[in-house]
Amino acid sequence: MTASEVAAPGRGLFPDDLLRTCISCGFCLSACPTYQDTRNEASSPRGRINLMRALEAGTLGEDDVREELSFCLGCRACEPVCPAGVRYGTLLEHGRDAVGPARDPKLRGLLLAVGTPRRTRLVGRMMRSGQLLGLHRIAPSRALRAAGRAAPMVAAPADWRLRRTVGADDGEPAALFLGCVGHLMFSHAAHAACATLATGGYRVTTPQEQGCCGALHAHNGDLAGARSLADWTVRSFAGSEGPIVTTAGGCGAFMADYGTLLSTPEAADFGARVRDYSTLLAGRALPALQKVTLEPRALLASLPGVEVVDLPSAGRCCGAAGTYALMRPDDSLRFLDAKLGEIAEAGVDAIVSGNPGCLLQFRQGVQRANLKGVRVLHTAELVAERMPR
Q: How far are the Cα atoms of 104, 117, 143 from residue 137, in angstroms, in the given order?
């Protein structure tokens, strides 16, 4: 189906004009991990957009496109190389919303758990208790057992909260976004980010009743739930000043597009303020879509005793992809294994990432490949170790 064939009114599943933007040039194919893995046209951004066009036109049903939309990592590596400016991430969210969320109890439980800050804290206490008792060994799925082995010990509840304000009174203002489950598992990254930003001259405030940004819901077929959480997040940061800093790259990419998601001036203003931690500390402006690549490298390379080693596949998704590792563990590990070989060959001492899901994925990978002595660190943690005081 061509772009002109979707000019007629369809089912109204997708925002106007988004499906017609794609010109089927194929530039996305070389950037797409699932296409490179399968060489199947339907597993490429171009192919999936054609499936979405058929879904919009009614010539295909939800069950006909569900598998390919699920197989997509949602990494959005296709967007920077697209000459037509296709907003593939937005299309994918609407496509998954059209087919509905997976009926898997693991996913339903996760989305329920992050629905409110109170629920997330309750789940954090349960996770910590389960770790102390070793309950991950009897988790009902292989993916959950592997994640349980790789996950760091969830911090005590007292460590989840940060001081409301850190830094000199005359420092440049910034507000810190914590996130949900990722913060429970990697709360030390937020503490490191807060401390290093304060050292860098910022006065960092942390709104207390913030919660999930909504990305997990949007990426899993629940746009209504995502909008509710996004609205909560925007309101929780009302009155804060300066950039909104995130230590979770996936959350940052989603929040930067709040204006499109909510269609309100407040949401658009919020999205324009979102900054990745490494971008802010490196003192550079954030590119659109949070495609942050140069800033972490520049920041890390400036630290004493750090040599940055770029893997050949550095710009390619590790397979974590939000809930992808939970829902499609075999596919996820296939993408991870491609990186593990490069890591072993490079002989690095540490793997550094600015996203909690990737950190968990690489922790699992280090165990899987028996890479002894290789640490997995958040960018902020390495900066905190090496930043001159």
A: 20, 27, 11
Q: Is 292 exposed, middle or buried (0-12, 13-18, 19+ CB in 10 A)?
A: buried
Distance (Å, whole) CA 347 – CA 350: 9
Give strand pairing partners of 176: 245
Per residue in 361-378, is it b (16+ CB within 10 Å) or e — as a string?
bbbbbbebbebeebebbb
Residues 3-37: pLDDT tens digits?
555 445 588 999 878 999 999 999 999 999 999 99
Distance between CA atoms of residues 196 and 92, nearest Å: 36
Q: Which residues contact 193 (CB under 8 A, 6 or more apart)?
A: 176, 245, 247, 277, 380
**pLDDT of 148 over the 90 cut:** no
Give the tens place of pLDDT for each residue, 304-354: 899 999 888 888 899 999 999 989 999 999 999 989 999 999 999 999 999
The strand ranges marked E within the chain are 165-166, 172-177, 202-205, 244-246, 274-276, 350-353, 375-378
Measured distance CA(215)–CA(75) in Å, rounded: 13
Amino acid, single-letter form, for residue 48 = R
* Residue found under tokens 């809930």: 323
Side chain identity at 335, as an amino acid letter? F
Indicate the residue type of 6. V
Looking at residue 284, its pLDDT comes to: 39
CA dist 74 and 30 (Å) reads 15
Reduced to 3 states, what is the DSSP secondary structure of residue 329?
helix
The per-residue pLDDT of the chain, averaged, comes to 89
CA distance 47 to 78: 12
pLDDT bin (cut points 50, 70, 90) of residue 291 is: very low
For residue 114, is pLDDT > 80? yes
Q: Copy the structure tokens of residue 76.
A: 């959005």
For residue 202, the cross-strand partners are 172
Contact 309, 350 (CB under 8 A): no
216 with 323: CB under 8 angstroms? yes
